[in-house]
Design a protein that fits this description.
about 550 residues
Length: about 550
């Protein structure tokens, strides 16, 4: 039994994090997404996935942290693209777990002070992860950064900017087809949710030009059991599109979604690059980037293979009953944090495809109607004993929609956040952990039987864990680990900085061995010498044609 006790400083940090979660999840759920599906019982699995995360995640994080720190994971997230990104890291770090806590409190299963050691552990882990991942911009949430997720290092962005191919009609068509097919497939893989799609950016390329990156993750055979066989022919687990646009406003939310103005922006794309990466790569690996024609052919070939997997995946889901589809949806949502177990070499397939029996207790009541009612209670009406707040409180998001002079009353007092009451500091009478030992769980869907797909091969669970435990990268140790953009600003001539840039440039088609002294004028010159347009020239051609 843990003897952990919360300090006053920790208590205030916990309640601050709960308020930030409230301020983030409410606007994102009300304005940035829709919880509906014609195939899956969306709201039942959506709401119960929160509770599954509540019971599951603390143990997963503690086990992983015996082998890898949240800082290590944050560095690896920034250097390559996998399941963990802006969306999944927020979901796994706080959003799902904290919302599960809210659901259980509102159901009367928990008090706000229950399982307090778990609460502190998850919040602290997430803050450490995200402050490392987003160290170049200094925010935990994109909501606090004006809906921007500028996570990539300059050394990576220079390669993406330099190596992108100027778009023409044939490449534009290939990009549009690849994006549409892969988005449809990813949406279905994750039970008609966007857990497998992520974005970061925007990044400034001068004038009205920007670059942003769209990631498609978990495309191949993975820890999601319904992918066995269906995804066997898909050649990449993760793919990233680097898109350069002209005269487009881009926002990236904490749900990892890129929103653009204009919404249909394909005619504003002037440059494209394609990359892959996974937990065993420490850099973005070019895909089809030898020439523009190779990139066009690669995008179309991948789209063909992905499209061929959609119908078999539909048939697999169509064979499931209501409860099995609910279970699949829950497992798909909590899978957001799967890379933590994969990276740490602690992956246990059975653990990731089983529903905790404590979640199954509420299964009978979480039909579509109750799920919808619970959702509205949490994020819109703030009703009930725990949704209500003191008479003097005005929710910051609700207040934005109120206008003086309209005869409308102020928003009803209420909030999502369930603060830990400070009286716990008096006697420390609270439970520490939700699961301090073995728990009971089970699965009613077909178990996984195939291997796990990565860029350098396919692995059994034991092989995968052994490889993960042995993984090393010079980017994860000093001095390179500690060479951030703030260091480069004043130390770009340092030999260690130059060596780091050359390592990043090893597979670049235009910047190989160029080093750390590059600025945008150098990239323009290099592109011109290679017979390619600068991005200012490409933007001018686009505008002349429109």
């Amino acid at each position: 039994m843990s003897e952990w006790r919360i300090s006053e400083a920790q208590l205030h940090l916990v309640n601050t994090a709960l308020a930030e979660h409230d301020d983030t999840i409410v606007p994102n759920l009300l304005t940035r997404t829709a919880q509906e599906s014609k195939l899956f019982p969306m709201l039942p699995y959506f709401m119960m996935s929160f509770m599954q995360a509540y019971y599951m995640y603390p143990g997963i994080l503690r086990k992983a942290s015996e082998h890898i720190s949240p800082e290590d994971i944050g560095h690896r997230m920034r250097n390559s693209s996998g399941q963990l990104g802006t969306l999944a890291a927020n979901m796994s770090g706080q959003l799902l777990y904290l919302q599960g806590r809210v659901e259980l409190i509102k159901l009367g299963v928990l008090r706000p002070e229950d399982n307090l050691e778990d609460l502190w552990y998850v919040i602290d882990w997430h803050e450490r992860l995200m402050s490392t991942y987003r160290r170049n911009e200094g925010h935990i949430w994109t909501n606090a950064a004006g809906d921007m997720s500028q996570v990539l290092d300059e050394r990576v962005l220079q390669v993406l900017e330099a190596d992108a191919f100027e778009i023409d009609d044939e490449l534009r068509s290939a990009v549009a087809r690849f994006s549409a097919v892969t988005s449809q497939y990813s949406f279905l893989v994750y039970c008609e949710s966007r857990v497998g799609m992520d974005a970061n950016g925007p990044y400034n390329l001068g004038d009205q030009r920007m670059l942003h990156v769209r990631n498609f993750t978990t495309l191949g055979e993975s820890g999601l059991p319904w992918m066995d066989g269906v995804a066997a022919d898909i050649p990449f687990q993760n793919l990233s599109l680097a898109l350069i646009t002209d005269d487009v406003r881009i926002e990236v939310t904490d749900f990892g979604s890129a929103y653009t103005v204009p919404e249909v922006y394909q005619e504003h794309i002037i440059g494209v690059g394609l990359y892959t990466s996974d937990i065993f790569t420490d850099r973005f690996v070019p895909v089809g980037m030898g020439s523009k024609q190779e990139l066009i052919a690669t995008l179309n070939q991948i789209a063909d293979v992905v499209k061929a997997a959609i119908a078999p995946l539909h048939r697999r889901f169509a064979q499931m009953n209501f409860d099995e589809m609910t279970e699949a949806g829950i497992l798909a949502y909590v899978y957001a944090m799967s890379d933590v177990s994969f990276m740490s070499g602690t992956w246990d397939q059975e653990e990731w495809e089983s529903i905790d029996d404590r979640v199954r207790r509420v299964w009978p009541i979480f039909n579509e109607e109750f799920g919808t009612s619970s959702f509205m209670s949490d994020y819109v009406t703030f009703d009930g004993l725990y949704g209500a707040a003191g008479e003097y409180l005005i929710h910051p998001y609700s207040y934005r929609s109120w206008k003086a002079g309209t005869d409308r009353p102020l928003p009803k007092p209420g909030r999502v956040a369930q603060f830990v009451p400070a009286y716990v500091l008096n006697d420390h009478e609270y439970s520490r952990r939700a699961s301090d030992g073995a728990t009971s769980s089970r699965s009613d869907i077909a178990r996984k039987s195939s291997t796990y797909q990565y860029l350098d091969g396919r692995y059994t669970q034991d092989e995968l864990n052994a490889k993960a435990r042995a993984y090393t990268s010079p980017l994860l140790v000093a001095p390179w680990r500690n060479l951030d953009d703030a260091t480069v600003k004043f130390g770009y001539e340092d030999p260690d900085v130059d060596a780091l840039y050359r390592y990043t440039q090893e597979q670049s088609r235009l910047l190989k061995d160029r080093g750390s002294a590059l600025v945008r004028a150098d990239i323009d010159r290099i592109r011109t010498e290679a017979g390619e347009s600068t991005w200012a020239e490409a933007a001018a051609k686009r505008r002349a044609a429109h």
